[in-house]
Amino acid sequence: MSSQARQIVDEMFIAFEAKDLERIVKTFSDDAVCIYHGTQVMPAAKFKTSEGARMFFDFNLSALQVVYFNKTQFIEEGNTVVVLGNEHFISNQDGSHIRNSWVQIYTVTNGLISRMEEFATSALPEQYGGNAGGQA
Known about the structure:
This protein is an alpha+beta fold and 136 residues long. The protein contains three helices and six strands; from the N terminus they run ααββαββββ.
């Protein structure tokens, strides 16, 4: 059985997949903080309050076409939900393809998301250094 925190995060993902901005925003507290740490392609950004959450998701829904958005693993502990996944978007502005692997960390307080933090990379396997190079 999923925790209350997981249920709120799942509701946000369902609303995101439905492109329902109002329903997404309703899952965030008025004092929410959303931090996107950025990738090699997309810049870092920080948004405060539920209005900030609206701005963050409005950009994602209006500026990007979702090719896929995969949630591959959930880790739950108390009021924290960690989600691992990957995504592929196409920019509506210039048609460029954006592929990221990510970790999202959600904190749920009083039944609403009070903090979302995303760490992502758009580096391709062949771009990694080290002794494994481009090997998976």
